[in-house]
């Protein structure tokens, strides 16, 4: 099986990377944008769930595999385990990537490859670097070692400073189709076709979320509950209560994602420190565990914010469906299962009110991104939707 086989809906991007990986062992920074030429720095952009990171690691595997752009199994296993000696990866579970993390990565990028043609440096979520941190990376991109390849991932090239954008070759991904994502989920996760299609549709082609909805009944239940709550709002007091419930749902979802991983990390840390399960932790080792706990708290904060944002993306899909019905569009609905309730809502509201509801959701997302308390942002959003007429008393039963 080729390393590209588990990627979906990105044939043009895959062709570019396969050609670059097969193009020889030399890198010429002066032809970064020429056809399928290999270059020392790449930026993969695309919407969340389009497969940016998966494509970056597939490209890394092809570059690190001896003599084949299809990737060999041994290298693929090492890349998946992040143990290949010529691969360095920077990802963060926090809100931002720290300047110290980038400095460490830049220092390691100066080493020559030990077993392969290249040394590959991957930064996931490169948009989470501040300008000061980005400038540290910029110096490495301006004067890269001959055999070092940088692969950055971000939602958009506009998320990076202009000087970095001018030094990378950008490959833009598109949103894969629902059918493509469903086929991938069905093949890779072993679920039935109906479940895979529903998950891909509800996830709006977000591959990671589609996997979760297809394989986790609780995640699907929480999504369904969120939309039904939104459709049941009758008054301002309902809006306030619903905002609190949505926050609880996002918290439960975030906890489900992080809890098991946190326990595994702690157990692994204790084992590596030589502490038996249930044993007393020596005072000299407590600082190391405190650091782990602090990292886990930061990850939980990000996971909660991601969960809240996912709720608002689901709400956007709801009002997008209403708008499609109101305008008589033939576009497929995301929430087909709620068609009766969507028909009722679209008949009792106007396209202008629906558009105002979508604007209110976008505003709430911006406010939370700007560190407004999520509870207040959700309350204001739902109240605005109610008062704007996108939900009217007695219309949805």
From TrEMBL:
InterPro entries, A to Z: DNA_pol_III_delta_C, DNA_Rep/Repair_Clamp_Loader, P-loop_NTPase
Gene Ontology terms: biological process: DNA-templated DNA replication
Domain (DNA polymerase III delta subunit C-terminal) ranges: 315-385
UniProt entry keywords in alphabetical sequence: DNA replication, DNA-directed DNA polymerase, Nucleotidyltransferase, Transferase
Annotated EC: 2.7.7.7
Pfam families: DNA_pol3_delta2, DNApol3-delta_C
Top-level taxon: Bacteria
Reactions performed catalytically: DNA(n) + a 2'-deoxyribonucleoside 5'-triphosphate = DNA(n+1) + diphosphate
SUPFAM superfamilies in alphabetical order: P-loop containing nucleoside triphosphate hydrolases
PANTHER family recorded: DNA POLYMERASE III SUBUNIT DELTA (PTHR11669:SF8), REPLICATION FACTOR C / DNA POLYMERASE III GAMMA-TAU SUBUNIT (PTHR11669)
NCBIfam families: PRK07940.1
Protein name: DNA polymerase III subunit delta'
Organism: Leifsonia poae
């Amino acid at each position: 099986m080729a390393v590209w086989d588990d990627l979906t809906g990105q044939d043009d991007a895959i062709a570019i990377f396969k050609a670059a990986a097969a193009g020889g062992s030399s890198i010429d920074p002066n032809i970064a944008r020429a056809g399928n030429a290999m270059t020392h720095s790449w930026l993969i952009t695309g919407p969340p769930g389009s497969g940016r990171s998966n494509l970056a690691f597939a490209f890394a595997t092809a570059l690190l595999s001896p003599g084949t752009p299809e990737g060999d199994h041994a290298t693929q296993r090492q890349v998946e385990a992040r143990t290949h000696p010529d691969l360095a990866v920077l990802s963060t579970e926090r809100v931002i990537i720290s300047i110290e993390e980038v400095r460490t990565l830049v220092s390691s990028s100066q080493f020559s490859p030990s077993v392969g043609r290249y040394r590959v440096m991957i930064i996931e979520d490169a948009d989470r670097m501040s300008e000061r941190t980005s400038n540290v990376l910029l110096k490495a991109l301006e004067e890269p070692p001959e055999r070092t390849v940088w692969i950055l991932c971000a939602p958009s090239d506009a998320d990076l400073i202009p000087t970095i954008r001018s030094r990378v070759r950008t490959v833009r991904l598109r949103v894969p189709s629902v059918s493509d994502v469903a086929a991938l989920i069905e093949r890779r996760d072993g679920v039935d076709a109906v479940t895979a299609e529903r998950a891909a549709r509800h996830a709006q082609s977000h591959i990671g979320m589609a996997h979760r909805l297809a394989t986790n009944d609780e995640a699907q239940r929480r999504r369904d509950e969120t939309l039904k709550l939104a459709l049941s709002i009758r008054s301002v007091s309902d809006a306030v209560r619903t905002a609190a419930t949505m926050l609880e749902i996002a918290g439960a979802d975030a906890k489900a994602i992080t809890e098991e991983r946190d326990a595994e990390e702690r157990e692994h840390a204790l084992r590596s420190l030589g502490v038996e399960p249930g044993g007393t932790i020596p005072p000299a080792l407590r600082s190391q565990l405190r650091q782990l706990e602090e990292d886990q708290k930061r990850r939980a904060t990000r996971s909660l914010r991601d969960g809240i944002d996912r709720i608002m993306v689901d709400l956007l899909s709801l009002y997008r469906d209403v708008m499609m019905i109101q305008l008589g569009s033939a576009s497929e609905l995301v929430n087909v299962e709620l068609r009766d309730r969507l028909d009722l809502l679209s008949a009792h509201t106007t396209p202008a009110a629906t558009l105002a509801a979508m604007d209110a959701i976008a505003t709430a997302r911006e406010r939370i991104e700007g560190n407004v308390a999520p509870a207040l942002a959700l309350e204001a959003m739902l109240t605005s939707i109610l008062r704007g007429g996108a939900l009217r008393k007695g219309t949805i039963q």
